[in-house]
Design goal:
The protein is α/β, with parallel strands linked by helices. Strands 5, 6, 7, 12 and 13 form a 5-stranded parallel beta sheet that branches. The protein has a 4-stranded parallel beta sheet with strand order 1-2-3-4, sandwiched between helices. Strand 1, helix 2 and strand 2 form a beta-alpha-beta unit. The longest helix has about 35 residues. It is elongated.
Length: about 525
């Protein structure tokens, strides 16, 4: 819409014409795939809503700038006679179109005049139209009769120009300036639909010949199986200044870089806590906090703890395991355990390696200190799993000239066959975080920072939709959607809005999703595996 306004000036007329369906199949509602329903609604209903919304926002902005109402502000929505008479085999299409022409249009009619005193919105409801959308559906003369002749007074299918003329009429203030909130049928005088085909009626036996009905109530009623939900592992890494001290250490770091760490505490943490509380998920979030952040920002840390969330470890100065000796890594872990225990009165149960950079010895160290979960690895992308018991490191290949090729030509260990520990891995990777695409780091080679937030938002949505489809297909594994935010990234105003949109979208799935702390997911996984 912004591009259209920049190219053409203020837009006076909107034709919201969105319509897709799947003509390859015509399932009854009990066989209708959820993916079909949602993909059709995404285009036909959501697409129409967003188009109208931003058309009117552009008009509002122009009027506020000029102080003058736009002339002939008009919207014409493409509905369908399916929304009036229904369409067996296409509940997703008919219900969406009905909602637009009989729900959205009359509602917006009463709203739009508050924006512009002469503004109007109407709809056209075409019947069958000779477009590519219907494919070869009506090539069969019997099908043509059933759908567009037997119940249509004009006994013919419409051409696109028939609909276009009706749209032009409704869009014209001179021709239809006193019409608003109306749905104009362009269906050739359609009276309805033929419900039963001739062959369906003739195929039925007389009632007297029907076998006696068998009792439909089972002798025993079994308890319904609990419906699976998508587990949302929403987490925040409060790196702050520590992010520039450990894995982010660089000889060219400046005060400007460190100031972004302070923004994390002074702006990001309060914004995110407020948002989580607003959406009712604050106590279902896992915060991974480096020891440096705990000691540098005690007030913010207390606010985080007071939200009822889980507190997990994340190094002291955001150190990579590769930056430390084994002794140093042990000392850091023990120090941070004590910091959290002093603040919360209980030992932390979870760990995320700074920048996901742990070593095999890190896993052994976590096992030694009875940690419940880690979230640094990604053998799987959405299913919890047990980490190996004291795993041996994978040795890098030595390509020295004096080495024989046979010295490295052997397989790595079979992960599934390795003896397992009780340490649960809640998988996470680079595609489940905000900082990599949305934060600019001056001294990091793969830094981005100027990615449109909607690219990341859409990627996360696609992941959720795929995991929901796996659950719908009967996959009985625990499905987890893991996300990690950083207050210095998601605390920035242009990103916080996206986070709110995405979280609101997630919450909108109701009982299909379940926000859980990482410790709850790990306990659930252990219980599923028969352990406690």
């Amino acid at each position: 819409m912004r591009q259209a306004v920049q190219r053409n000036g203020p837009i006076h007329i909107l034709c919201a014409n969105a319509g897709i369906t799947n003509e390859a199949s015509h399932p009854s509602i009990w066989d209708l795939p959820l993916e079909t329903w949602e993909s059709v609604y995404r285009v036909n209903v959501r697409g129409t809503f967003l188009t109208i919304k931003h058309f009117l926002r552009a008009a509002k902005l122009h009027q506020e700038r000029t102080g003058i109402e736009l002339e002939n502000l008009a919207i014409v929505v493409t509905g369908s006679e399916c929304g009036k008479f229904g369409q067996a085999g296409h509940a997703e299409y008919a219900s969406g179109k009905a909602g637009l022409q009989y729900g959205l249009v009359p509602t917006v009619k009463n709203e739009i005049v508050r924006l512009n005193s002469k503004a109007r919105i109407n709809a056209v409801a075409p019947g069958w139209v000779n477009t590519a959308l219907i494919g070869d559906r009506l090539d069969d003369p019997r099908e043509l009769y059933m759908e567009s002749q037997g119940t249509v007074a004009l006994r013919k299918i419409a051409e696109p120009t028939d609909v276009a003329k009706a749209v032009a009429f409704l869009a014209s203030h001179r021709a239809a300036g006193h019409m608003s909130g109306q749905c104009l049928s362009v269906d050739g005088g359609m009276e309805g639909r033929i419900v039963w085909r001739e062959e369906e009626v003739l195929a039925q036996k007389p009632a007297a010949q029907q076998p006696a009905l068998q009792p439909s109530v089972p002798q025993q009623i079994s308890k319904p199986k609990p419906k699976s939900t998508l587990k949302i592992a929403w987490s925040v890494d409060f790196d702050a200044v520590s992010g520039w001290l450990g894995t982010g250490a660089h000889p060219d770091n400046t005060t400007t870089d460190y100031s972004a760490g302070y923004l994390s505490a002074l702006v990001g943490v309060p914004r995110l806590l407020k948002l989580f509380k607003k959406l009712g998920v604050a106590d279902k979030v896992t915060w991974c906090i480096p020891g440096h952040s705990i000691e540098t920002f005690p007030d913010q840390t207390k606010s985080i703890i007071d939200s009822g969330c889980e507190i997990a470890l994340h190094g002291y100065a955001h150190e990579s395991a590769s930056q430390m000796t084994a002794e140093q890594e042990r000392d850091v872990l023990l120090k941070c355990i004590q910091l959290v225990e002093d603040l919360t009165g209980k030992r932390p149960r979870g760990y995320r390696a700074p920048l996901y950079q742990l070593k095999e010895r890190t896993i052994s160290l976590l096992q030694e200190h009875d940690f419940l979960w880690d979230s640094s690895l990604t053998h799987y992308d959405s299913t919890p799993y047990y980490l190996p018991l004291n795993p041996a490191p994978i040795t890098p290949i030595d390509f020295s000239p004096d080495k024989k090729a046979e010295s490295w030509m052997h397989p790595s260990p079979d992960f599934d066959k390795l003896p397992k520990s009780n340490l649960v891995e809640i998988p996470l990777n680079w595609y489940g975080e905000d900082a990599t695409p949305l934060q600019f780091y001056p001294h990091t080679a793969n830094s981005a920072g100027y990615v449109d937030v909607r690219v990341v938002e859409r990627m996360w949505m696609d992941r959720v939709e795929w995991l929901r489809s796996e659950i719908a297909d009967g996959d009985e594994e625990i499905k987890v959607f893991s996300i990690v935010l950083h207050p210095d990234t998601s605390g920035m105003a242009h990103i916080t809005g996206m986070i709110e949109r995405f979280l609101t979208w997630l919450v909108g799935f109701g009982e299909e999703v379940e926000f859980l702390r990482c410790e709850e997911i790990a306990e659930m996984y252990k219980q599923r595996q028969g352990q406690s």
